[in-house]
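Quick question about two entries, pasted in order.
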Amino acid sequence: MEEERTLPRVVVAGLGGGSGKTIVSMALLLAARRAGMAVRAFKKGPDYIDAAWLSWASAHPARNLDTYLMGFDCAVSSFVRHGVPDGLNLIEGNRGVFDGMDVAGTHSSAALAKALHAPVLLVLNVTKVTRTAAAFVLGARQLDPDLRIAGLVLNHVNGRRHEQIVRESIAAVSDIPVVGVVPKLDIGELVPERHLGLVTPDDHTAREALEAKLLAEVVLHLDLESMVRIARAAGPLRAELEPEPNLPDASHLRIGYLKDAAFSFYYAENLEALENAGAELLPISALTAGALPAGLSALYIGGGFPEVHAAALSANASFLQSVRDAARSGLPIYAECGGLMLLSRGIIWHGSRYPMAGVLPFDAHVCGTAQGHGYTELLVDRQNPFYSSGLAIRGHEFHYSRIELQADTLDTVCEVRRGAGAWRHRDGIVSGSVWAGYTHVHALATPQWASGLVNAARRFASSSMATAGN
């Protein structure tokens, strides 16, 4: 079904990582909300942490728009479906604005902006540069004249003289207006980084202080009126809305998912797909719950930072025992990355070993460098409880842990055609009704994920009822 909607929108992009995109995006969302505007946030690419912060700043779930995983049509359709007609729709880019899959910048933030017919606010980190900033702007405009760079935000500006020289240098070569001048700030103390990026909102204890600092020290330097005017200048967007996937009936099924500071990496669409099928979703804390709830039909364990909370997880022995018992009883368990680590025998982190659920026959050793980072492509080549054989899956991975296995064999069901995977160019470790892998999937890109989990849950529920009736 084709629809045309007026959706004020803007892409916040940069020339590389560390430009300040996330800080500017959060500040703009907070400022718009304080001005009484409806806001929605989106994140380009496969990302949980930045999307979580955008969710926090916008007070609504931030959607990921990944043209590589889901295709351009699906990404545009998702944006149209979830955008607000009156207010501000902000899309935060990733990496540098032109950085994509190849030298042509395929699937870059610029490509997404053009697909959405959205203007771009370009954030420039001007640390230790003056006139060179003009070269950045001139080069960006000439590299892709079709990209509408509608405003500039200067970040890390070191005083009035620095600002004046940069402004005048840019004005000499370009008519793109400067709509924000953010001074050098020590935001890093309030949003610290760790091995996978920023600390997550669930693991952050000073969100109120962060909001106050953003409003007082960043918003103050943004021209909100000009930014909103740029967003409103975007014309109507016509898109073919993708139909909702036809999922099997999940009514009367109770599907649990681990949700706490250790496990927070879930796409909103994944959870919504299960709910739309009729399932009752139960959030469970692996840190505080004494055991899994009774009557579960399946368990979904997403990614996160179990290594950071390894001591607390390991100390919750009754919960780990309940996971182990559930796996032995045949409960379908689908685990991604951090979930794989929880199901392992133990997590090795900073020289210490912390026993885990012991469902899978290996340890997860957290290393000092990434063991897998980027998009993945899997081919399902063996039978398993969740996916049909022959299915090609596109996903992504970002993990610092690796499997340490005593034996020479491990039951896996996927060939890794792109990426690192879990073990010897394989992913999808299967044991009974348990799936564990390092690949994360998005429900819009892989609708078979929700269908597979619901079908597995339905089979388990039916078998449990039959057993109870005997």
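Here is the second entry:
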Amino acid sequence: MEIWTEIKISVPAGFTDAAGDIANMCVPYGIYIEDYRDLEQAALEIAHIDLIDEELLKKDRTKSVVHIYISPEDNPAEAIAFLKERLGAEHIPFEIDTADSDRAEWENNWKQYFKPIKVGDRLLIRPVWEEISDAEGRVVLDLEPGVAFGSGTHETTQLCLSVLEKYITPGCTMLDVGCGSGILSVAGLLLGAGHAVGVDIDPLAVKTARENLARNGFGEDRCDLIHGNLTDKVSGTFDVIAANIVADAIIALSGGVKRFMRPDTVYIVSGIIDKREQDVLDALAGFGFAVLERYERNGWLCFVLKA
């Protein structure tokens, strides 16, 4: 019998829709939301009844609970890290609980399903516990995602990695906004960037990113890692800027990103679900960005921009 992990995200009722959108990014098969604000009205409209169970009437109307279910081959720790980072970036108050058989078990058992992944034309992501006999000429990126988002399995990360192959040039500088596991920063350096800066609001993500950089032979002379709220502690300008985060965070930070850009800087944004495409495009246009390229994979979008 397969044991799935249930993750429960409790948020104030007013943040239900926003939290649901973020939760939908974790799983491709839907979510379940407990929201009792309109219980009586919904009972009348949907079930055509006005007699409601007493236990339901006692439910807290001020909070909602978003439930998602992680399959055994996926990493619950990464999903939780993703949720914490994205909910925090959107300033959504939240509590996260899990219902499972054994935390240590699900934190390790998913690894049997995470195999080396070819991304784009030049990269091969290797989980550190897997051996490879032939990289087929690809650059090998050694990765232990730990409790940070960014294992390379999600469409948004793969889109970013594929686009980085095109825009990273020898010796260039890179800013990785919301660096998570550090996968984009490491990839940029492996592809030839001279220096990278990664920033994340989650201190555990910064710690994981630092460890992954070391695994791939890079120290502080090649990459600065910053614990901060997106771009508030970053300075300087960069050749390439990548932000693999959610639509609302991209909208919120993109006006400020321009101060880190030169005339020839490319700005790569991903983590955008297709139903938010126009919202993001309208905001980016308002900030003075022009779309150079658009990429899509399984309902997720990535844009390459110039100011």
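Reply: The chain has two domains: 5-110, 154-306. Confidence is low (pLDDT under 50) at residues 39-54. Hope that helps.
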